[in-house]
Amino acid sequence: MSGFNMNEMMKGFGQMPDMQALAEAQRRNLEALAAANRVAMEGAQALARRNMEMLQQTMTEMTEAAQRLASAEASPQAKAAQQAEMMKAAYERAVSNMREIADLIQKSNGEAVGLLNRRFTEAMEEVKTLMKPGS
């Protein structure tokens, strides 16, 4: 390859950015990603714990309600009314639990995405600074 000049080729690229600064920026990117993953994992664990608590509470309530209904000495109409009230209460509890779960998910995801968005904004500023002539 006669006539190939590496120095001439590199001049076409302009000034090379600070590789140490780029490595540091990449390290901060990875730290932000790890932090976002940690927040997401903590959120998933909190969600699983809360879901288990809800399940245990529901099972306890259902057992107690079934025992009350079975031991009640009431007319069939009164038992039907009690059962309807229990179903209404169970439905309202389920809706409330679903809202709580949705809120937990939204909060966890919001925190994780917030970490990534902050780092992305910082990274864009770093890139602008690194690419300025004379930096």
Describe this structure in words.
With 135 residues, the protein is mainly alpha-helical. The protein has one domain. The chain has three helices and no strands. The longest helix has 56 residues, at 76-131. The mean pLDDT is 87. InterPro entries: Phasin, Phasin_subfam-1.
- Distance from N terminus to C terminus (CA atoms, Å) equals 34 Å
Count of discrete alpha- or pi-helical segments spanning 4 or more residues:
3
Oligomer: single chain
How many independent structural domains?
1
Task: Report the structural category.
Answer: mainly alpha
- Percent range for β-strand residues: under 5%
Question: How many extended strands?
Answer: 0
> What overall geometry do the principal axes of the alpha carbons give?
rod-shaped
Low-confidence spans = none
Helix percent reads over 70%
In round numbers, the mean pLDDT is 87
| Rounded Rg | 30 Å
Strand/helix succession: HHH
Major beta sheet summary: none
Protein name: TIGR01841 family phasin
InterPro entries: Phasin, Phasin_subfam-1
Pfam family, one: Phasin_2
